[in-house]
Amino acid sequence: MENDHLITLLERTARMDEKLDSLLEDRDKHDQRIGKVEKHIHMGYGVVAVMTFMISAFAEFFWSKIFGKHS
Q1: Per residue in 14-55, pLDDT tens?
Q2: Main-chain dihedrals φ then ψ at residue 70, nearest 5 degrees
């Protein structure tokens, strides 16, 4: 009878171990996806910064052509 109880506990422990492994794998996949999203966000910040610089340089060039330099 006690052996049956120990076998049941071992089976439950094995199932919990499998579930934990599955959860850890899911978490790792989720962390990888978050890393990719963060990378794209940072790339977006860079693109916005470069575009802002280019637009302001372009505007300054044409402003000076139209109105002359006022420095």
Answers
A1: 999 999 999 999 999 999 999 999 999 999 999 999 999 999
A2: -120, 50
| CA distance linking residue 50 with residue 30, whole number of Å | 31
Banded pLDDT at 71 (limits 50, 70, 90): low
**pTM summary value:** 0.55
- Cα 66 to the center of its chain, rounded Å: 45
Phi/psi at 59 (nearest 5 deg)?
-65, -40
- For residues 16-40, b (16+ Cβ closer than 10 Å) or e, as one string? eeeeeeeeeeeeeeeeeeeeeeeee
| Cα-trace Rg, the chain | 30
Count Cβ atoms below 10 Å from residue 66 Cβ, excluding itself: 7
